[in-house]
Amino acid sequence: MEVFVTDSVCDMPEEWLKVHPFYTIGMKVEVDGRTYTDTVDISREEFYGMVTNESELKTAFPSMSEVEKFYEDLKEKGVDEVISIHFSEKLSGFLDTYRLFIGRLKDLRVYLFDTRSASAGAGLIAMRLRELYEETRSIKVLKERFHEIRRNTFLVFTVNTLKYLHKNGRIGKAMNLIGTLLKIVPILTVDEEGYVDKKAVVRGRRSAINTMAEMATKFLKGKKFVRIMVGYGAEIMRERVEELLDKIRNLVPTGVEKLEEYLLRISPTVACHTGPEVYGIGVYAE
């Protein structure tokens, strides 16, 4: 029996997962000194209910003994093949350690895919790979189409404060100070190599929403099938992400034949790196 595995950095909509289930390896999230396992003993609603922009947030990946227990549970269910799809190895040491672990497994075969993305971007790649496997039942086809599926995926996001990005080494001290003083808003992405990178820099909320909508719409040109996933963290960001979705709806090219839309809450693991006041959009288009 084969199953799909992912991690708590890959955001996918709950309604879709009910039909196409994944097993999830939860990363560790620390909130003001207390540690939780994402998806196991803290939900997204619980997390956002307790954090503010003053919270001290950290992450870590699970111990290999916890990953070993995760796989023992899969084997007890009769699993002998795993398609394992994860966030970018450039954003954490998790995948390097995970590779060593799965390389030692003897009675279970694991096919590993590094999305070189995160959050909605990684989730959209995982969703398309899962659907493709359901259509073909072929690992070979997944490997052949993987790079194309990555190219068909677009992600941008922004934040209300640069504090967490600065703390986690994503921006420098000068940018943090200037951004705070001038209300500069970075539009961020995960680049082709899997690193967080600036896509643009704008001033103010309205410019951020318009710029992200225009970028996403440009990506849709000439595409027939489009899947849009907008995500937000703290409740205060929901209005912004709904405005972003409305904006994109009005800009979708007429040639699009099938359009899917999802709205979800960004995972606690991601929010620990960006801060809770985060929102953005992922697009898959082919």
Q: How would you explain this protein's 3D organization?
A:
Helix content is 41%, strand content 28%. It contains eleven helices and 13 strands. The strands form four sheets. It has a four-stranded parallel sheet with strand order 2-1-6-7, with helices on both faces. The chain has a four-stranded mixed sheet with strand order 8-13-11-12, sandwiched between helices. The longest helix has 18 residues.
Structural features:
alpha/beta, Rossmann fold, four-stranded parallel β-sheet, 286 residues, Hypothetical Protein Tm841, Chain: A,domain 3
Please give the structural blueprint.
Blueprint: E1 2-7, H1 14-17, E2 23-25, E3 28-31, E4 34-37, H2 44-50, E5 57-60, H3 64-76, E6 81-86, H4 94-103, E7 109-114, H5 119-136, H6 139-151, E8 153-159, H7 163-167, H8 173-182, E9 184-190, E10 196-203, H9 205-219, E11 225-232, H10 238-251, E12 258-265, H11 268-274, E13 278-285
Helix pairs in contact: 5-6, 9-10
